Predict the structure.
Amino acid sequence: MKRIFVCLLCVLLLAGCGKKDAGEVLAAEKDPHAGEAALEEHPVQPAADNGDYMLSTEWPEYDPSVKTVWFTLENHSGADIETGVDYGLEALGENGNWRQVPFVDNAAWTAQALCVPDGETIALPCALGMFDYDFSGGGAYRVTKEVEGQTCAAQFQLKDGAAVSAETPYGKGPLEEVPEDGSGADVTFTENGPDSLESVSVFLEKVRLGIPCQLRAAQGESWPMVIDVFYENSHFLWRMRTGGEIAEERFSYIVTDGTDIYLSNGADWPTAEKFMNKELTWLLPPGYGGGFVETVEDMTSDRLAGNSARYRVWSADGCYDAMLTETPTEFGVGRQKPGEGSWGQLFDIQDWDGLETAVHSLDWQADGKLLLVCGTANGGASRLLFDPETKRLETEACGLPLADG
């Protein structure tokens, strides 16, 4: 599988959003604010549809409460292309004309030159909050994107009561409300095998593209075990309901042993095996993952080529992660808290007191601190606690700041 590379990073300020395509105007002057007036009558030419570049939204319809509409761009042009993360949005008027929805003042995004090989697909989020418009009334819309001089588009509906909403972003209710017979699962495993594995293929493809998603599986017949796997914030939340009880764990990766596929905190199978007693579970029941081994192997290969992490664990709330790399004394910590920003940093335990020679394991504690079990130069072991809020490393007796590496 060819990899998709991010070639350039810069900041793009959206000042003056007008564009032209084949001599036709695609953007009007600033439209009135939503609620003050309807969008100015400003018809936009039909988007190109020659099969070279295909734009599609994840779902055909959404409840107006949604904040983000994910869309994909497929390259079937016969050549590699470059494109950015910019996009537009148009609303369908009663007279059948598409009218461009204006951006909010000072709208901005990070622009990336994305190299998309022929035959590959990328996914991008269309944030509705980027637009100065009231979407609560629903209607027909389309995401537009300029690709190699052509305007591509993907249409969707905003409709009250649609299954995909802010409360149910993947079209399913909470695990606690699933009927006892497990009905409504994406895939059901019985003694006769699965009813269909198509939903598993869709789930893995969305994970590969970085689209937040959910897979719900039921196992058994009379009182099935129901398992939800969510892919969000670059990791997986696994929740299982059985016997009326719910258990949950967080995992970082999907890996394979060549026969089955698993959720793991190890970035590859050798690392997963090392921690398998504690941090490994089947994504699918044993014996049913064979058809997805090649896909998962490709995902693993891409992951190892683009990231130094070989083992990663997540805090219970999913806001903090900690990782080990191939450097024995190195560990990294990152934070992604909605509304509070994010950061990531690598540390080296030799900057602590010089006695530790390797980090053997990481474990988030109930108080939010990270426990590091380390080997020492004298052949012993030490237990250190890292506080991600203060970035301090401490022992049971005292707390001292971790020296800068």
User: Anything to note?
Assistant: Residues 1-37, 399-405 have pLDDT under 50 and may be disordered. The domain at 5-158 is CATH 2.60.40 (Immunoglobulin-like). The chain has three helices and 31 strands.
